[in-house]
Write a structure and sequence with these properties.
about 160 residues; 8-stranded mixed β-sheet; alpha/beta; 10 strands; about 30% strand
Length: about 160
């Protein structure tokens, strides 16, 4: 049996370990702008169960994280309405990197530089297991989606749009 690829620790995996969260490691060949669709394809997962971490901001430029299915977009109007904001928009990559401490494409909701409110698409919580970024490009971790609520205090929202 081949030795499984092990990826060196990231702030995300350190936080998961500190919280005694069981996770599996899923490294893959990162593709610039490939997104969750690419990682799902390479790893043989349904893109619906590969969760992307999006750094967004409200009208006052306050950052927030949105966890969304890999094959869905965020309705910023619906999201803003549900979280009591006037508007929500994605952060520019350099701003997202500053808020999270991760590079775009390798953003994990765990172990971010700044503590930000986390919102999770409600239907993700019904999945038995998800793949989510482990804090590095080309590296996903498999976890129970409830971990996002237990460890991050993620609040469920309904703002998915089919791509």
């Amino acid at each position: 049996m081949a030795k499984k690829d092990h990826v060196s620790e990231t702030p995300a995996t350190a936080l998961l370990k500190a919280n005694r969260v069981a996770f599996t490691e899923h490294p893959y060949e990162y593709l610039e702008h490939g997104g969750a669709q690419h990682s799902a394809e390479v790893l043989g997962w349904d893109p619906f169960a590969v969760v992307k971490t999006l750094v967004m901001q409200d009208q006052d430029a306050r950052p927030l994280l949105v966890l969304m299915h890999g094959n869905r977009k965020v309705s910023t109007k619906n999201l803003a309405r549900q979280i009591g904001a006037k508007s929500v928009e994605p952060c520019k990559p350099e701003v997202a990197n500053r808020h999270s401490g991760y590079l775009v494409g390798g953003t994990s909701p765990f172990g971010t530089r700044r503590t930000m409110p986390v919102f999770i698409e409600e239907s993700i919580l019904a999945l038995p297991k998800i793949l989510i970024n482990g804090g590095r490009r080309g590296y996903l971790v498999g976890i129970d989606p409830q971990v996002c609520v237990q460890v991050l205090g993620a609040r469920p929202v309904q703002c998915a749009l089919v791509e």
